[in-house]
Amino acid sequence: MRWTVLTLICCTWTAHGLIRIPLRRMLSVRTQLRASNRLEVFMRDHQPDVFNRRYAQCYPPGIPSLRLGKSSERLYNFMDAQYYGLISLGTPEQNFTVVFDTGSSDLWVPSSYCVSEACGMHHKFKAFESSTFNHDGRMFGIHYGKGHMLGIMGREVLKIGPLTVQNQEFGESVYEPGYVFVMAKFDGVLGLAYPSLAEELGTPVFDSIMNQKSVDQPIFSFYLSKSKMPRDPEGELLLGGMDEALYSGPINWNPVTLKSYWQIKMSSIQVQGALTFCPHGCQAIIDTGTSLIIGPTRDILALQQLIGATPTSIGEYLLDCARLSSLPQVTIMLNGVEYVLTAESYVRREMMGDHEICFSGFQAEDLHSSTDPLWILGDVFLSDYYSIYDRGQDRVGFAKARHTRYTTLDAEMDR
């Protein structure tokens, strides 16, 4: 019943010409693995590049994204993705649940010809049932850090809510790696980053939307809700602009520093005035495809100590749930503006049986960068701050997200 309601909502235009795509907040793969007591084994067996080195001789030649070491350059972290939405491909329409991911640029869904266990758990695209399918013939491969995906290319009619995209390039996966995709609640991924990141799959979806002049403005925005109220949206992707009913205060803009990921300059990160990280500036990737804030190992380990987090045997960090109110604030400085995260924002709460466990929302990973140290700002940050992605002026905007029921009428009254 909930799916039916969301589907109806996504097929309407707002008064301001925006296209609203409802997002559902689901259990992450990491949470599911932990609940089934498989997380420790998974983390031990799926370190970056382990799969790559073991099976490198099996990959088709000429697919650059599968070469050794590529995992340090591609920042897919769907173990912690939580917000998914609905799209369709083909005629008649075939529905798929996808991650709308600003950390990648490719669109792919499972193929009916897929041979891996993961595909058996998800909706699969049946090209032979679609009258508008065009076979491309190219192969693609994507390295996901903890395994690889292989597939074939095609072109098809794509629908996102009321929006129709003609002749969209996409990938049909015929092999998907391991438990990440077996346990994932999403079928595929729709990337929203720049074209230069789409090494294999051609024109990204939002570029197709802009080329076909399907939106008034070359802008999209994300609202990721914290609300537990059943009638409140769990999240929304808005194509063509932004909705001021979903945020308060001014929008603070940050120029994109590298047109690949949505990458911007981060001035510093400070923990309650005690210690400042990257005081001379860092690069930050804004990534709706992960829930965490990820940074260099040296900095993250020091940050974990400052917030009183204790390491586990598999690299996670635990916090005392009873002490959250006394934990320090973490302040991220972007283009002269302070973005404050309290413990309620950067701590992930999970239930294990009858007990609540609190995990740090910070994760260490040394990511390849030719310039400054590289960080990723995922949903820990983006659920507090409404984010706007402007391809027309190559900038990312942030404003304080509203997490109480707030209508367009309220916004008019505020003015």
- Separation, N- and C-terminal Cα atoms: 37 Å
- Strand arrangement, major sheet: 1-11-10-26-27-12-13-16-25-17-24
Q: Please tell me what the overall shape is.
A: globular
Please give the radius of gyration in angstroms.
21 Å
Classify the beta-strand content into a percent band. 35-45%
**Sheet/helix structural class:** alpha+beta
Count of individual beta strands: 27
Structural commentary:
This protein is α+β, with helices and mostly antiparallel strands and 415 residues long. Helices cover 16% and strands 38% of the residues. It has helices spanning 2-10, 29-35, 39-45, 50-55, 178-183, 205-211, 297-306, 343-346, 379-382, 408-414, and strands at residues 19-22, 24-25, 83-89, 94-101, 107-110, 134-143, 148-160, 163-175, 188-191, 219-224, 235-239, 247-259, 262-266, 268-271, 275-277, 282-286, 293-295, 310-311, 317-319, 330-334, 337-341, 347-352, 355-360, 362-364, 374-377, 385-390, 395-401. It has an eleven-stranded mixed beta sheet. A hairpin with a 5-residue loop joins strand 18 and strand 19 (317-319). The two termini are 37 Å apart. Mean pLDDT is 81; it is low at 1-16, 48-76 and 406-415.
